[in-house]
Amino acid sequence: AALKGGLRFQVSAALKEGHVTPTELCQRCLSLIKSTKFLNAYITVAEETALKQAEESEKRYRRGQPLGVLDGIPIAVKDNFNTAGIETTCASNMLKGYISPYNATVVQKLLDQGAVLLGKTNLDEFAMGSGSTDGVFGPVRNPWSYSRQYKEKSVPKSHSEDEESNWVITGGSSGGSAAAVSSFTCFAALGSDTGGSTRNPAAHCGVVGLKPTYGLISRHGLIPLVNSMDVPGILTRCVDDAAVVLGSLAGHDPKDSTTIQDNFKPFELPNLTDVSKLSIGIPKEYHAPGLSSEILALWSKAADLFKNAGAKVVEVSLPHTRYSIVCYHVLCTAEVASNMARFDGLEYGHRSDMNKSTESMYAATRREGFNDVVRGRILSGNYFLLKQNYENYFIKAQKVRRLIANDFVKVFGSGVDILLTPTTLSDAVPYMEFIKEDNRTRSAQDDILTQAANMAGLPAINVPTGLSERGLPVGLQFIGRSFQEKQLLTVAKWFEKQVKFPMIQLEVKRHDHGAFQHQKSAFFS
Amino acid sequence: QEVTVEVLDRLEHLALVDFRDAEGVERLQKAIQFADQLHEVNTDGVEPMDSVLEDRCLYLREDDVTEGNCTKELLKNAREKVEEYFVAPPGNIPLPKLEERETFLQGS
């Protein structure tokens, strides 16, 4: 019912009419977080503060004065956003024990709307990775690994093996947030997206993942990876919910001078019925090597869906697509080298006991605090920024970036409204298989379809489309014009309605009540 | 084209991060190889792009103090402090040279 369907409007209506109270909702979610602990989606659960926030919300509802649609709604936030009084770790030893003295702007905005912050979700260390497997708190498990849909399609192995070795990854780096939304422990979650980190796990976990236009949402308080590409990402169970969250987050922030100053007006999505005026572009380069035949077929089916509904569907070309990942690799490592320089142990975070000199203390602190992936990117970045390499690598990458951005400008300028592409190359792989390749290789492979949108700063969204042969979610991506989120989400919502993605049938064993199926909410049955 | 030990040493100095082992060095080699693909692209006459918002004016606010007075809060997160100071070990001491420090690179 409302708890599962996750339509914010339904749950909000239920709150407004008193069918359920914010504290009941909060307790429900906290309890579900406990029963799904094995997913490892949460690093920190802020139980006390969440219940307090829920109580405050309840008072407002009783007075008939809720702050808005988000009042009392349980949400989760990726652990690379600063949250006042709550540990923010970025899944790294470097920030273990770091209690933020302030809230990131996006967190503050959600709290100002009355949202209930349940906790901080797990990620790849410092958001570097595409599996949510490389953080110090361990990997996140995809909730679909425990779905009836997946289990039905798995070849039965020996009894002892089953779930323990078969579970699949969430994708990354916002895997914890995607898993949290997918397993119903919250109604919306914040992620971040630099190369696909919100859309990739959204696709693997069967949820909506929105990457807004660069400059629309404030990055103040989001621990930076690549300043020129990072954006906060939004994960929800349906497109309408994403629009609601976007509405509460977007707009100029004086604390982030890279946010645009245009006036942003929150919008409600119309129910599109006539797509005949729409022009959908299918970029041929997104038929990338390694794209599974299943996803190719789904992509093709989606294109036909639009065509049959009267839309104009055209093949287009983004010729520099295949250089996007290389370009990203250089620019990302270069910016990372700079952004990670702040972690020296002096003002916050881990500090080594080494005390001989500042340099040796910094070196030891960073040696102890960062994992291989982070150190590797810092070193590569510094290499590309060496005087002898600066022109050939860093500046060169910046030039290629312009070419990539121009590809999109040309296509959108030719009359195409929205681009339709796959989000990932395949459905989620089992963890045991994923870790056979190193992080950089995996990221290079998995980001290929999502990265270019970050390069060009364009808005993009993953919409869960169907289930693979293995019973796992597959999503498709829509890319829109700069700051045209309303159009992008309107089309995404239309598409979502057509494909009717199935609800996950989560099978969770509860220690106290034995195995049960189909988590039901007593309040709505 | 292999990266010389001098360059590797220089990088460890600049980054204040160590390669740790042969895998770390190999990781760099692979990263460079990967990045070399960029040279296939013809970028004659193309200007480098710093930001997708290059056509817009960056927001500058008035030079008025609007927040602060949070010394206590900020000091909470520091491990070594004295009164209102962050305490650092002595500065101006360069990292020991390659031969003298404990680094994997010494063996290479």
Automatic annotation (TrEMBL), chain A:
Domain Amidase: 29-489
GO cellular component, one term: glutamyl-tRNA(Gln) amidotransferase complex
Pfam families, sorted: Amidase
Gene3D superfamilies associated with the record: Amidase signature (AS) domain
Entry keywords, A to Z: ATP-binding, Ligase, Mitochondrion, Nucleotide-binding, Protein biosynthesis
GO molecular function, one term: ATP binding
GO biological process: glutaminyl-tRNAGln biosynthesis via transamidation; mitochondrial translation
Ranges in a coiled coil: none
The keyword Mitochondrion belongs to this UniProt entry's keyword annotation: yes
Domain of life assignment: Eukaryota
PANTHER family recorded: GLUTAMYL-TRNA(GLN) AMIDOTRANSFERASE SUBUNIT A, MITOCHONDRIAL, TRANSAMIDASE
This protein's name: Amidase domain-containing protein
Organism: Aptenodytes forsteri (Emperor penguin)
TrEMBL record, chain B:
Pfam families named in the record: GatC
Domain of life, per lineage: Eukaryota
GO cellular component: glutamyl-tRNA(Gln) amidotransferase complex; mitochondrion
InterPro entries reported in the protein's UniProt record: Asp/Glu-ADT_sf_sub_c, GatC
Gene Ontology BP term (one): mitochondrial translation
Record-linked PANTHER family: GLUTAMYL-TRNA(GLN) AMIDOTRANSFERASE SUBUNIT C, MITOCHONDRIAL
Name this polypeptide is given: GATC amidotransferase
